[in-house]
Structure formats: C-alpha cells, structure tokens
Amino acid sequence: FADDDRTALDAAYREWRFAALERTELAELPNPRAFSDACTRVEKESLLRSLRISSDPARHVDWLRADLELGFDALYLHNLERNQERFIDVFASHVLPKLR
Q1: Is the pTM of this model over 0.85?
Q2: 21 neighbors 14 (Cβ within 8 angstroms)
Q3: Cβ atoms of 84 and 91 closer than 8 Å
Q4: Other Cβ atoms closer than 10 A to 81
C-alpha cells in the first residue's frame, strides 16, 4: 500500500523482490550471493502476480474479505512502503472497519 500504485510497486520491488522467484528456485539457491543474483533478474511487474500491491483501500478490503471467507481467524498485515503511519491510519479508517 502507498499513495499511488507506482510507489507501492516500487516499495515491493525494493523490499521483497524475492517474492517473484519460484519456490523451487529459492530452494536451490546455495548461498546469499546466489539469492542476491537471482533477485536482480526480477522484473517489477512480475511482483503483481505474487504480492498484493495497490493504492486502493477498497481493493485491499476485497482481498482481505476473501481471506476471511476462507476461514482464517486472524490476518497479519505487512506494509512494504516506509510510510507506516499513513498505512495504519488508512487501514484503521477505511479497511478494517469494513471487515468487521
């Protein structure tokens, strides 16, 4: 989550680009250097297939509601963009109340 989709995608790429790697590839990386090298091949847009990246609170409501419908008792949210205060404010005001 961020002020706009591009900023959200940039944050995801900066902080969690490894999320775009295949699990089988991750399992075979022999050392941190190989991990780092593999991450350099990740394209930003590929993260859209493995992470929930959006600046739209309503989109996050939809994603989280679908998780709850699967029967989860609790959800733990992790924001990759560094403006944590805004994330907490927006989710407290516009996301979490719609999930109750």
Answers
A1: yes
A2: no
A3: no
A4: 20
Rounded CA separation 20/58 (Å): 24
CA–CA separation, 21 vs 50, rounded Å? Answer: 9
pLDDT in tens, the chain (100 residues): 999 999 999 999 999 999 999 999 999 999 999 999 999 999 999 999 999 999 999 999 999 999 999 999 899 999 999 999 999 999 999 999 999 8
Calpha distance 96→87 (Å, rounded): 12
Scanning the chain, the segments in alpha helix (DSSP H) are 5-16, 23-28, 32-40, 57-69, 84-90
CA–CA distances in Å: residue 98 to residues 54, 76, 85: 17, 16, 20
